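Researcher: Structure for this, please.
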Amino acid sequence: MNRRNLFLSGSAAALFGGSAAALFGGSAAGATQTYEVTHSDAQWRKLLSPAAYDVLRQQGTEAPFSSPLLNEHRAGIFGCAGCALPLFSSKTKYDSGTGWPSFWAPLPDAVLTARDNSLFMERTEVHCRRCGGHLGHLFTDGPPPTGLRYCMNGVALRFTPAA
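Model: Predicted structure, token format:
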């Protein structure tokens, strides 16, 4: 495994006894703000799968092209896997070619952003407005009409098909 894959897969957290984001300049979700939905670390571990816990609570990143949601093309809503808050409409989903589910806009009042200086680079972190869970990152190379790419970890999302 090369160094890039080591950090991207979250294996660095296991090797160093903590999350890679915490070791390299980031902060765990919810560390500086109070959210509507809160749980202890032990409760989050019970509520979430290990992969979802790593992404949502430890700012991990799932491997590219590994999420079934990448190829989800039905009409519906993508919500937070931590608290079920609706985050993105399928109407704003597009194929960015990056390997992660991507959207050009969130639903109103769904996400918050924060500066992320982890892994020796500056990015914009996207997290759930209600529980503070880390969802992914925001980039300015998206399609019209916004020019934005919300590059999300599929494991941090739950899809609900339209009725």
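Researcher: Any notable elements?
Model: The first helix runs from residue 3 to 8. The longest strand covers residues 111-116.
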